[in-house]
Specification:
By secondary structure, the chain is mainly alpha-helical. Helix content is 57%, strand content 0%. The protein is built from one helix and no strands. The longest helix has 35 residues. It starts with a helix and ends in a 22-residue tail after the last helix.
Amino acid sequence: MSMYPDLMLAIAYDRHREMIADGQRERLLASARRARKARRVRGQPTGTLAACEPSAVVPAR
């Protein structure tokens, strides 16, 4: 038997909380990647820094 059962239990609970947090973080990142991929339009960036209107008008050929 361990000399410090309370310490071992605290370490086990801490590790359990870390594993849960890692799983939640992975699920959140996967969800964000899926959402970003779904928003992607061919030839257009998905970031928020893209201009809403074209900055220069190119005449049609």
